[in-house]
Amino acid sequence: MADDTTPATVVLVHGAFHGAWCWDRVVPLLEAQGVPVVAIDLPGHGADPVPPGDLHQHGDALRAVLEDIDGPKVVVGHSYGGAVISDGAADVDGVVHLVYLAAIVADVGETLSTVDVGGPSLGLGEAEVSEVPAAMQTTDDGFLVVDPDLAVGAFYADCEPADVEYALARLSPQNPATFGQPVRAAAWRTVPSTYVVCYEDRAVSVPFQRALASRTTNRVEMPTSHSPFFSAPQPLADLFAGIARDAGAG
Hints:
Number of helices: 9
Number of domains: 1
Oligomer: single chain
Distance between the termini: 18 Å
Shape: globular
CATH topology: Rossmann fold
CATH architecture: 3-Layer(aba) Sandwich
């Protein structure tokens, strides 16, 4: 007998400097499998016209989106977006699974640079751990941007040139407050979760990712850079679709 279970809606949350556009290869692949999907622009990113928001504004914006979606929801956070989903998806009805994609899994009161998982730190300022700090520059208005030349290695080392060009043309400034604000809630403490380790990553160290995964329910690994939504969209979509179908059946 055919399985007529409606999958959960997958809500995709981008990381720092990015926007909903980073999921452009993944969204149609999920839709082709009959999985409802929503990719959002956090305040000040992508097509959102306001100044770059802080972590709490981002969490509030995500919560508003989630509360407007009926039925079960799987919430995916990439990189910095992991802090956003921990903060914004907590105690929201219908959130049944969280996916942390090379992402920060912070506890209440922790910031992106003070996460303590009993292992290696994120290494902000430590070039041997992450290439992102060296790539960041401060603009005259106090926001952070990424040097496009250095961004390629940090974010897109295994991506096709056309995808890299597409991404570099769309990167947004980031509010520096996002890196120093404490997470107000930890949705992963009450919601089942999956950590996706990208083990060719040069933005978030692989040992740190594996330590963060100790806070989640499940762990899977992918042989990609920090941006599998470009370099491995089909495996990523298949993973999300499987989680969404299981969540919908549950």
